[in-house]
Write a structure and sequence with these properties.
The complex is a heterotrimer of chains A (747), B (160) and C (336). Chain A is α+β, with helices and mostly antiparallel strands and 747 residues long. Chain A has 3 domains: 34-139 and 190-279, 2-Layer Sandwich (Aldehyde Oxidoreductase, domain 4), CATH 3.30.365; 367-448 and 595-747, Aldehyde Oxidoreductase, domain 4, CATH 3.30.365; 450-592, Aldehyde Oxidoreductase, domain 4, CATH 3.30.365. In chain A, 25% of the residues lie in helices and 24% in strands. Chain A has 16 helices and 28 strands. In chain A, helix 14 packs across helix 15 (713-730). The longest helix of chain A has 25 residues, at 515-539. By secondary structure, chain B is an alpha+beta fold. Chain B has 2 domains: 4-79, Ubiquitin-like (UB roll), CATH 3.10.20; 88-155, Orthogonal Bundle (DNA polymerase, domain 1). Chain B is built from 5 helices and 5 strands, in the order E-E-H-E-E-E-H-H-H-H. In chain B, strand 1 (4-10) and strand 2 (13-19) form a beta hairpin. In chain B, helix 2 packs across helix 5. The longest helix of chain B has 15 residues, at 141-155. Chain C is an alpha+beta fold and 336 residues long. Chain C has 3 domains: 1-53, Uridine Diphospho-n-acetylenolpyruvylglucosamine Reductase, domain 2 (2-Layer Sandwich); 54-134 and 144-205, Uridine Diphospho-n-acetylenolpyruvylglucosamine Reductase, domain 3; 209-312, Enolase-like, domain 1 (2-Layer Sandwich). Chain C has 13 helices and 12 strands. In chain C, strand 4 (58-60) and strand 5 (66-69) form a beta hairpin. Classes of the chains: A alpha+beta (747), B alpha+beta (160), C alpha+beta (336). Chains A and B meet through helix 1, helix 3 and helix 14 of A and helix 1, helix 2, helix 3, helix 4 and helix 5 of B.
C-alpha cells in the first residue's frame, strides 16, 4: 500500500447498505444472462447424456438423427473433430478432466456421449433422442459402500490434507467420557437457477463466449488450451450469473463441445443444459461418511477430537470432500486428528459446492458436539465455550481476529437460548407440536486468490474502475464499487464500475468466499495508486494549496485531496487534473495476500447459528420455524447484501438438513430424481423467522480491507443446529442427512 | 410439420409469429419475440422462473405451447413497469434486497403481481404459500416476502 | 418431442371426430407437456380442448350436488365459494396440490387423468425399487407400482364422484373409482378416443360439509407430492357418526377406500379408539415394498388425524396452509 494514503475509511461508501446497482436491470428482465444471447445465424446444440454409468456405447442411430428435419450435424466419438488440448489434462489451477466425446466409453450417467446441432432447439433435441444409443453396460458402483476406501494422498485442489496435533491415542485414553458416532451426508447438486449455458462464436482464431463464469480469465486460459490459441484470443462475457455456488468456476465438457461445434460449422452455437442435465457433468458435493470420536475430561474439556471422513470421487479424477477440515481449527482439543479417505465410484467428478468441506464436516461435527454435550450433562453452548480455542488448535497461532464468543452471546440472546431444557422432548407449542432448539458453530476459511484492477480518474472528477469480477448474485457490481469509491475518495455515484468481461484486468475467482477480499483489495490498491499519483502532482505543483506537502500523507474525500490532519489544506481533484493538462490518471492494483501473513496468523470467519424446529408428534413432518445466525466475518462492505448472502447460506443449511439428496438407480447408476420435482430444495413456505446478526469484527491482518467473506459460512453451522433441534424436540438422534419424516417415524 | 401462425397480445401489444407446435410459449417469447426476461429454470413446471400471465392467469410458460397462446393476452416481466416507471413491487424488491442473482426474479415479480391483484392484503403465510411455486436458490425467500408485504401495503396506500 | 400435428376444434363433435390412434387431448398441459418433454409420451397429434364450449362451467345443482366442466382449472374450482362450501375437502385437496401456477393451468380432467410419477422413468428401464420408493404403492398392486399422484382425486373418491365421458360409442358415466382402477394394460378405464366432459359430485357428498378435511403429509411445507394423505368426511346424527367416508392418498395406484373401514364408524361416537380401528381396517392388506414399511404406519396416522380433524369440524375458512399438518400453526387464514 502506498504510504501516502490512509487506509480505507469505514462508513463513507463501504459499510453502507447500498441497494444493488444491478437492481433495475434485474427487476425489469433487462439483465442479460448467457442464454439470452441469440446472435444471427445461430445453431442450437443439444448433447445426449448417457443413461448408463459404466461401459461403452456400441451403437447410435445416426441416420435417424441426421434425417430429422432441421438437424444439421450429428457428432459422436466416431466423427468428432480434433481438439488441440488433451481432455485428460488439467490446464489451469482449478480444472477437471472433461468428457468431450474423446472415446466411446461411459464413465458416469449423464456424461455427454453425442452432440446434435440443429436450426432449432426442437430439432436438435429430437435429433438427440433419435440417436437411441445402445450400450455394453458394466456393473456399477454408486454407493459409498460399493468402493474400497483408501487414504487420500494430499495434493492441492481436490486432494485434502489431514492433520494430527498431539497424541490422539493418549487423548482418547485420557477421556472420562467418550462418544464414537458416524454421520452420513448425501450427494448434492448445485442446481443454480440458471442452468449452464454457452453461446460460442468464432471470428478467425478469435473466440467470443457468452458463458456464466465465476472465474473469467482463468476460463479463457482453459478454453484456449483446448483450441490451441492464445488465452488473449478468448473473450468471456459474463455480466450476470444466475447463481454459481462453485459449479461455474470450472469449464465443463459441454461448453467445450459447443465451442468445437461453432468452429466446425463456422456459425455461432448455443448450448443450454436442461435441468435434468444439471445432474451430470457439472460437479456436485459428494456423499460423505464421517466418524467422530470425542473424549472429555471431568471439566468438559475435550481431550481428543478425532474426525475421519470418507468421500467419493469419480474413477477418473480427484475431488474428495474435505469434510474433516471442519475439525481442524475450531475447538481447543487436547489432541486433534483429521483424516480424509476416499472411494472411487461410477459418478461424475464432484467439485466444490457452497462451503465445500465445512458444510458437510460441520454438519457431523456440530451434531457430535451436541451428543458429547448431552453426555456430559452440559448445555451445548456452555460446552462449546468450555472448549473455545483462543489460538488455533494444534499450532497455537494467533487468530487474525476471532469474535466467535460475541457471535455465541449475541446469537443466544437474540434467540432466547436461556432457559432451554437440557433434556429433549420437553417443549410443545399451543398447537401441540413438538418444539426443539439446537445450535451449531460455523467457521469458514478466508482465502485470497489473486486479482488485478485498474482505476481511472477522469478530468471531470468521475472515475472508472475495472476488473473482470463475477457477480453470481452476491453483489459484486455494488460492493466492489463501494470499495473502489472509498479508495478514490469519491461518492459512489461518481464511480462507474466495469466488470464481468475478460478483457478487463483479471478479477480472479468468485469462490472460496474470497472474491470481495481479493478483487476488492485490487480495486482498493488501484484507487490508492491514482490518489498517490494525484498527490505527487499536487505536491509538486506551485499553484496547488497542497504544494510542498512532500512527505505528508494525503487523504482523498468527497473528490478532494486533503493533507491528513489539516482540513484547511485541500484541493478538488478536478483542479489538480486541469492544471496538469487535463488528462485522466490511471492506476493499477493487485489483490493478493502476502504469504507471511498466513504463516503468522490463523484466519477464519466464525459464526453461531440457533435453530428452532416444530414437529408434528405423530406425522413427524418438520418445519424450521426460527433461525438466528450471528456471524463475524471481518468488515462488512454492504450490510444489506451481506445479510442476503448469510440468509441464503442459512436456507441452504435448512436444505442440507431436511431436503437435498440424489438417489441412484443401483442397476444403471442413473440419478432417478434428477429434476426439481424430485430433488427438493426449500420453497418459500419452508422458511420462517430468519434473522442475521453481523457481529462487529476488526481484522488488521487478513487484508487491507479487513474483509473475510460471507458467501458460504451461512450454511456451515446451520445444518448441525437443525439436526440438534430435531433431536431436542424428539429425543431422536438421526445421523444421516437429510433428515426425513421416515427417519423420525422409524427411529 | 408445418408451422402455425399465431396472433397474440403481449403486454398490450399485438404480435404475430410462426410457431412449430413443439415450441413452448417460453421459447416463443424468448426466441421469436426477443423477450428474454422470462427464464427457463427447469422446463417442467417445477421452478416458476418462466411465470407469465395468460389471460390474466399466472402460469408456467414452459408448459404452455406457443400455439396455445393464439388469441390470448400474455403478460410478462417486460410489462410490469409501465411507461418507464417501476412497479411498487420492483421498487420494493430493490429496496429490500429481495434479489440476488436475479434469475428467478422476473418470475417471482410476475407471480407476486398476480397474487396482489387477486389478494391485495395477503398475510405472510399466504405470501409464502402462494409463492411456493417460485424457487430461489440464492436464496432470498425472507426478503422476497418482506418486499411483497411492503409493496402490498404501498399499493393499498398504507405506510408500511 | 417428435413433431406432432396440432388442432384446435371448436366443438366436442369435431374434437371426437379428430381423434386418431396416437392422438392426445391437451387440457392445461401441466402433465402432458411435461411428459412429452421428458420423453415419456410422444403423441403424433395434439387436440387442444381450450376452444370447446361449455366445459368451463361450474353448476351447483338444486339438489345439493355439483357438475364441473372438464376444463375448469383446479384453482377456479377451489376458489368457487359455493363449491368450496359444499365440498370443502375437495377445495382443500386442490389447494394442497402443486403450486399456484400449476393449479391455474391444470384442469379438472387433467388432474384426474394425470400420469403417475413412474411414467417419467419407467421408459428408461429403471428398477423402481432403486428410485423414489416413497412414491411406491403399498396397497392394491402386485409389485412396485407408483401411487396415483393426485390430491384432488382422494376426496373425489370418498364422495363417489362420477365422470361424464363421450366417445366414439356415445356418452357414458363412469364412477371415478372405476375410471382410475388400472389394469395390467391400461392406466384408466377410458376407451381410446373417449373424452372427459364433466365431473359430477352427488348431492349426498354435501351432507358431509360440516365435517370434512383433507390432510397431506409431505417433505416440503408446500409444492411436494404427498407421502401419504387422507380425505375424511363425517356426517353426524347428534353425538354419533351417521356415516363416514375415508379415502387414502399416495398409498395405491388409485385413491384407496375400504367399505368396512367406513361402515365400522357408522352409529359410533367419534373417539381415538374408533378412528384407530377404522385406520387399521383401511390399511389391512398393506404390504411394504422395499424399505417403505414406514409408509404403512404413516398412512395409519394420517388417516387417524384426518378423521380427528373432520370430527372437530370443517373450519369456517380454509387454512392458509391447506391440508398441512401446520395449518393450525399458521394463525392467519385465507381462501375465504
Amino acid at each position: 500500500m502506498p504510504d501516502t494514503v490512509q487506509p480505507i475509511r469505514f462508513g463513507s461508501n463501504s459499510g453502507q447498505p447500498v441497494s444493488r446497482r444491478d437492481g433495475i436491470a434485474k427487476v425489469t428482465g433487462a439483465a442479460t444472462f448467457s442464454a439470452d444471447n441469440s446472435p444471427a445465424n445461430l445453431l442450437h446444440a443439444v448433447y445426449l447424456p448417457a443413461t448408463i454409468a459404466r461401459g461403452r456405447v456400441t451403437h447410435f442411430d445416426t441416420a435417424a438423427a441426421q434425417a430429422h428435419p432441421g438437424v444439421t450435424h450429428v457428432i459422436t466419438p466416431a466423427n468428432r473433430p480434433d481438439v488441440q488440448g488433451d481432455p485428460e489434462a488439467k490446464p489451469t489451477l482449478f480444472s477437471f478432466r472433461v468428457e468431450i466425446l474423446q472415446d466411446d466409453s461411459v464413465r458416469y450417467a449423464g456424461q455427454p456421449i453425442a452432440l446434435v446441432l440443429g436450426e432449432t432447439l426442437e430439432a436438435a433435441t429430437e435429433g438427440a433422442r433419435l440417436l437411441a444409443p445402445q450400450y455394453a453396460a458394466e456393473p456399477v458402483a454408486t454407493d459409498l459402500d460399493d468402493g474400497a476406501p483408501f487414504d487420500i494422498e494430499p495434493g492441492g485442489f481436490g486432494r485434502p490434507q489431514g492433520m494430527v496435533h498431539g497424541d490422539i491415542d493418549a487423548g482418547h485414553a485420557a477421556a472420562r467420557q467418550a462418544i464414537d458416532v458416524t454421520y452420513e451426508t448425501p450427494a448434492q447438486y448445485h442446481n443454480a437457477m440458471e442452468t449452464h449455458a454457452i453461446v460460442a462464436e468464432w471470428d478467425g482464431d478469435r473466440l467470443t463466449l457468452d458463458v456464466p463464469s465465476q472465474a473469467l480469465n482463468m476460463s479463457c486460459a482453459a478454453y484456449a488450451y483446448f483450441f490451441g490459441i492464445p488465452a488473449e484470443n478468448v473473450t468471456v462475457r459474463s455480466p450476470y450469473l444466475g447463481g454459481g455456488f462453485g459449479s461455474k468456476a470450472i469449464p465443463i465438457g459441454p461448453n467445450i463441445l459447443a465451442i468445437l461445434a461453432a468452429r466446425m460449422t463456422g456459425r455461432p452455437v448455443k448450448l443450454m443444459l436442461t435441468r435434468q442435465q444439471m445432474f451430470g457433468p457439472t460437479g456436485h458435493r459428494p456423499a460423505t461418511r464421517q466418524r467422530l470420536r470425542m473424549g472429555i475430561d471431568a471439566t468438559g474439556a475435550l481431550t481428543a477430537l478425532d474426525h475421519e471422513s470418507l468421500s467419493a470421487s469419480s474413477r477418473f479424477d480427484d475431488f474428495f470432500e474435505p469434510a474433516s477440515n471442519a475439525s481442524q481449527g475450531l475447538y481447543a482439543a487436547g489432541a486433534l486428528r483429521s483424516v480424509h479417505k476416499g472411494v472411487r465410484l461410477d459418478i461424475g467428478t464432484p467439485g466444490p459446492m457452497r462451503a465445500p468441506g465445512e458444510a458437510s464436516g460441520a454438519a457431523a461435527l456440530e451434531c457430535a458436539m451436541d451428543e458429547m454435550a448431552h453426555a456430559a450433562g452440559m448445555d451445548p453452548l456452555e460446552f462449546r465455550l468450555r472448549n473455545y480455542a483462543e489460538t488455533e488448535p494444534g499450532t497455537g497461532k494467533p487468530f487474525s481476529s476471532k469474535a466467535l464468543r460475541d457471535c455465541y452471546l449475541q446469537g443466544a440472546e437474540r434467540f432466547g437460548w436461556d432457559g432451554r431444557p437440557l433434556d429433549p422432548g420437553q417443549m410443545r407449542d399451543e398447537a401441540g407440536l413438538l418444539v426443539g432448539w439446537g445450535m451449531g458453530t460455523a467457521l469458514f476459511p478466508c482465502p485470497m486468490f489473486a486479482a488485478e484492477a485498474r482505476a481511472t480518474l477522469r478530468p471531470d472528477g468521475t472515475a472508472l474502475v475495472e476488473t473482470s469480477a463475477a457477480d453470481m448474485g452476491q453483489g459484486a457490481w455494488t460492493s466492489l464499487a463501494q470499495i473502489a469509491a472509498d479508495s478514490l475518495g469519491l461518492p459512489l455515484d461518481k464511480v462507474a464500475f466495469n466488470a464481468g468481461h475478460s478483457s478487463l484486468p483479471d478479477g480472479g475467482v468468485a469462490g472460496g468466499s474470497g472474491h470481495t477480499a481479493t478483487a476488492g483489495t485490487a480495486l482498493h490498491e488501484a484507487g490508492c495508486d491514482v490518489i498517490r499519483q494525484l498527490g505527487e502532482i499536487a505536491a509538486t505543483d506551485p499553484a496547488s494549496p497542497l504544494h510542498g506537502a512532500g512527505n505528508a500523507r494525503f487523504v482523498a474525500r468527497d473528490g478532494h485531496l486533503f493533507i491528513e490532519g489539516d482540513d484547511s489544506r485541500s484541493e478538488p481533484f478536478t483542479d489538480i487534473l486541469a492544471r496538469a493538462g487535463g488528462a485522466a490518471l490511471t492506476g493499477s492494483g493487485k489483490g493478493v495476500r502476502p504469504p507471511e501473513v498466513g504463516q503468522e496468523f490463523a484466519m477464519s470467519s466464525h459464526g453461531a447459528v440457533f435453530a428452532e424446529v416444530r414437529i408434528d408428534p405423530e406425522l413427524c413432518q418438520m418445519r424450521v420455524t426460527r433461525l438466528v445466525g450471528a456471524f463475524a466475518a471481518g468488515r462488512i462492505i454492504n450490510p444489506k447484501l451481506a445479510e442476503s448472502q448469510l440468509m441464503g447460506g442459512m436456507i441452504w443449511g435448512t436444505s442440507f438438513a431436511l431436503h437435498e439428496k440424489v438417489t441412484h438407480d443401483r442397476t444403471t447408476g442413473r440419478i432417478v430424481n434428477a429434476d426439481l420435482a424430485g430433488y427438493h430444495v426449500p420453497v418459500n413456505a419452508d422458511v420462517l423467522g430468519l434473522e442475521v446478526i453481523t457481529v462487529h469484527e476488526d481484522d488488521l491482518h487478513v487484508n487491507v480491507l479487513g474483509v473475510k467473506g460471507v458467501g458460504e459460512i451461512g450454511i456451515v453451522g446451520t445444518v448441525g443446529a437443525i439436526g440438534n433441534a430435531i433431536w431436542h424436540a424428539t429425543g431422536k438422534r438421526i445421523r444421516r442427512f437429510p433428515i426425513r419424516i421416515e427417519d423420525l417415524l422409524t427411529a | 410439420m408445418s408451422k402455425i401462425h399465431v396472433t397474440t397480445t403481449v403486454n398490450g401489444d399485438e404480435v404475430e409469429f410462426l410457431a412449430d407446435p413443439r415450441e413452448t410459449l417460453l421459447d416463443c417469447l424468448r426466441d421469436k419475440l426477443g423477450m428474454t426476461g422470462s427464464k427457463e429454470g427447469c422446463g417442467t413446471g417445477d421452478c416458476g422462473a418462466c411465470s407469465v400471465t395468460l389471460d390474466g392467469t399466472l402460469v408456467c410458460s414452459c408448459l404452455v405451447l406457443g400455439v396455445e397462446a393464439d388469441g390470448k393476452q400474455v403478460g410478462t416481466i417486460e410489462g410490469v413497469a409501465e411507461g418507464g416507471v417501476l412497479h411498487p413491487l420492483q421498487k420494493k424488491f430493490i429496496e429490500h434486497a429481495a434479489l440476488q442473482c436475479g434469475f428467478c426474479t422476473p418470475g417471482i415479480l410476475v407471480a407476486a403481481k398476480a397474487l396482489l391483484e387477486q389478494n391485495p392484503n395477503p398475510t405472510e403465510t399466504e405470501v409464502r404459500y402462494w409463492l411456493a411455486g417460485n424457487l430461489c436458490r440464492c436464496t432470498g425467500y425472507d426478503k422476497i416476502v418482506r418486499a411483497v408485504m411492503d409493496a402490498a401495503a404501498d399499493l393499498r396506500g398504507e405506510a408500511a | 418431442m417428435i413433431p406432432f400435428a396440432f388442432l384446435q376444434p371448436t366443438s366436442v363433435d369435431d374434437a371426437l371426430a379428430a381423434w386418431t390412434p396416437g392422438a392426445a387431448w391437451l387440457g392445461g398441459g401441466t402433465n402432458l407437456v411435461d411428459l412429452m418433454k421428458t420423453g415419456g409420451g410422444q403423441p403424433s397429434l395434439l387436440i387442444d380442448l381450450s376452444r370447446l364450449p361449455g366445459l368451463r362451467d361450474i353448476e351447483m345443482s338444486d339438489d345439493g350436488g355439483a357438475r364441473v366442466g372438464a376444463l375448469v382449472s383446479n384453482a377456479d374450482l377451489a376458489d368457487h365459494p359455493a363449491f368450496a362450501a359444499r365440498f370443502p375437502m375437495v377445495a382443500e385437496a386442490l389447494l394442497a396440490g402443486a403450486s399456484g401456477q400449476i393449479r391455474n393451468a391444470a384442469t379438472v380432467a387433467g388432474n384426474i387423468l394425470q400420469y403417475p410419477r413412474d411414467a417419467f422413468f419407467k421408459h428408461l428401464g429403471e428398477d423402481p425399487l432403486d428410485g423414489d420408493t416413497t412414491s411406491l404403492s403399498i396397497l392394491g398392486a402386485n409389485g412396485p407400482v407408483a401411487v396415483h399422484p393426485s390430491d384432488f382425486c382422494v376426496p373425489l373418491a370418498a364422495l363417489d364422484a362420477v365422470v361424464e365421458v363421450q366417445g366414439p360409442n356415445g356418452p357414458r358415466d363412469i364412477a371415478l373409482a372405476d375410471l382410475l382402477a388400472p389394469t395390467a394394460d391400461t392406466r384408466t378405464a377410458l376407451a381410446p378416443g373417449e373424452l372427459v366432459l364433466a365431473l359430477r359430485l352427488p348431492a349426498e357428498g354435501a351432507t358431509f360439509a360440516g365435517h370434512a378435511r383433507y390432510l397431506k403429509v409431505r417433505d416440503r411445507t408446500s409444492f411436494a407430492f404427498a407421502l401419504t394423505s387422507a380425505a375424511a368426511a363425517l356426517r353426524f346424527d347428534g353425538p354419533r357418526i351417521a356415516e363416514a367416508r375415508l379415502a387414502l392418498g399416495a398409498v395405491a395406484p388409485t385413491p384407496w377406500r375400504v367399505a368396512e373401514a367406513e361402515a365400522l364408524m357408522a352409529g359410533q361416537a367419534p373417539d381415538a379408539d374408533l378412528f384407530e380401528r377404522a385406520a387399521q381396517t383401511a390399511l389391512s392388506g398393506a404390504v411394504a415394498i422395499g424399505d417403505t414399511g414406514w409408509k404403512i404406519e404413516l398412512a395409519r396416522r394420517t388417516a387417524i388425524r384426518a378423521l380427528t380433524l373432520a370430527a372437530a369440524h370443517t373450519p369456517a375458512r380454509l387454512p392458509a396452509l391447506p391440508g398441512s399438518p401446520f395449518a393450525a400453526q399458521a394463525k392467519d387464514h385465507a381462501h375465504a
